[in-house]
Amino acid sequence: MSQPTEPRPSRQTAAARPTLSRRHALGGVAGVGLGLPLLAACAGDDSSATDPAGSPGASTGGSPSTDSGSSGGSAASAAFASTADVPVGSGAVFPDEGVVVTQPTEGEFLGFSITCTHQGCPVDSVSDAGISCPCHGSVFDLTSGAPTAGPATSALGAVQLTVDGQDISRA
């Protein structure tokens, strides 16, 4: 003898009730997980380009920014190098700061990220030929940070600097 079984809900009943399938839930989580790094990367590029502290005169000179450096005393505005450390027509790498400082012409100091745009290796030397990455041979221009040789196709990221007398610091 068989016992009576309860009727199963029909497909119409299940379709009328909105549910989230496991496949759709995992797909949504994966989409958000993949999208966040892209948004963060875009936001990082925009924030350096629109840095309010780095507006007029932040890359060289320093007269518009000197008041903020003397009153704030923050670690970001502390001098990490002297102008004497950066040869004219070349530059110097400051790994602890993550910055390459170049002096293409006398008195013009420019900052770039030490992270090579090819595969993220740190650049390690600067000469009159450019900023060099030891991993795959990319070389970057002293003035623009644009690649002049090697596999890199994008310029090094700009770093805003303040020069106050002989002191070089981040803007």
UniProtKB/TrEMBL annotation:
Keyword hit for Transmembrane: no
Alphabetical list of InterPro entries matching this protein: Rieske_2Fe-2S, Rieske_2Fe-2S_sf, Rieske_Fe-S_prot, Rieske_Fe-S_prot_C, TAT_signal
Domain Rieske: 78-170
Polar residues biased stretches: 1-13
Cofactor(s) of this protein: [2Fe-2S] cluster
Region (Disordered): 1-22, 44-80
Pfam families: Rieske
Keywords: 2Fe-2S, Disulfide bond, Iron, Iron-sulfur, Metal-binding
GO molecular function, one term: 2 iron, 2 sulfur cluster binding
Keyword Iron-sulfur annotated: yes
Record-linked CDD domains: Rieske (cd03467)
PROSITE patterns: RIESKE, TAT
One of the record's GO cellular component terms: membrane
Protein name: Cytochrome bc1 complex Rieske iron-sulfur subunit
